[in-house]
Design goal:
two-stranded antiparallel ribbon; two-stranded parallel sheet; 6 helices; mainly alpha
Length: 122
């Protein structure tokens, strides 16, 4: 999508650096195990990718797969807004582990707390 939107050029959207730093510091202050790194944004579900495709992405430093980050950062850049993606892992591709529906309903509180802390600090 970015390739099409930017007249054939590749645009690498990034989070707002101050929000990013605030979120990292807030996670560290709380003693939470937060991983920082690149994510792959795709509109395909996991089963629509080749079974071991994650290995290629992991080899390039990608730590997660999700569906919205690239578009969120692109829209923020185009509209001169600040954006940050904070993700919670629900499925682990290499091991096929997955959160239960109950864990999905109750397990995202830390993500919300971290987002609120980042905004407050910023």
């Amino acid at each position: 999508l970015n390739h099409r939107r930017f007249n054939g050029f590749d645009f690498a959207p990034l989070p707002d650096p101050n929000l990013f730093i605030s979120a990292v510091l807030a996670a560290r202050e709380r003693g939470w195990n937060a991983h920082v790194g690149n994510v792959l944004s795709t509109d395909l579900f996991y089963q629509d990718h080749a079974p071991d495709e994650w290995r290629m992405w992991a080899g390039s430093g990608v730590i997660a797969v999700e569906m919205e980050t690239a578009e969120l950062y692109t829209l923020a850049a185009r509209k001169r807004r600040k954006a940050l993606t904070i993700l919670t892992v629900s499925d682990v591709l290499p091991t096929h582990e997955a959160m239960s529906s109950e864990e999905r309903e109750t397990g995202f509180g830390r993500m919300v707390e971290l987002a609120l802390a980042a905004v407050r600090e910023h």
